[in-house]
Amino acid sequence: MSSASTRRxxxxxxxxxxxxxxxxxxxxxxxxxxCEVHVAVVTxxxxxxxxxxxxxxxxxxxxxxxxAVEVLGVHRLHFEEVPAALVADQPVWQLNKAIGALVESxxxxxxxxxxxxxxxxxxxxxxxxxxxxxxxxxxxxxxxRAVYCYEVPSETHWNAPYLEAGFLPNVWVExxxxxxxxxxxxxxYESQIRxxxxxxxxxxxxxxxxxxxxxxxxxxxxxxxAIRLLE
Length: 231
Fold this sequence. Notes:
By secondary structure, the protein is α/β, with parallel strands linked by helices. It has a single domain, classed as LmbE-like (Rossmann fold, 3-Layer(aba) Sandwich). Helices cover 38% and strands 20% of the residues. Strands 3-2-1-4-5-7-6 form a seven-stranded mixed sheet, with helices on both faces. The termini are close together.
């Protein structure tokens, strides 16, 4: 794999805040190491009136996202306009084309994707669209040296126990020096975080980082499922 200082990383978030919840500490660490980190948020209001939320909601959330990724040191934040909560209703070819064009435009060496068995269908559909984009039948797919799935509190752990695969990590990234940065970024999402003991609370996210770290004798960590690792 190329050196950390030259790697281009893409974190694909179905919704704004997934990137910080799932891998905010890793983003901050890699950015500090000199990597070019991109974050892409797939969903938004969409081109037509949304059946659930007004367009003004995305003005607020996207403002929060811009502040959060600035805290993390992200090189560039990208927004797509697939309607939130309606990703599964989009024609498959259309979603695959949009996600593929996104990945192709950034040309990452490393990709972070949502876990395919998260409860939220938006997460699942984004994963499957990404799995088309990272196929090695294309130059863009062949360029990807590593693909990881991240966990999102309140989504990854709410799937049907024993009926679907659970999140069993095989990669841990130490974020001891970057946990507070992750939590500061998460605090930017004032409209999305909840008071403790909610899974999306600052306290719960800190506890998860400490728990994941303890599994590998680290003070704090984020855990991932590796889909591809090429040396």
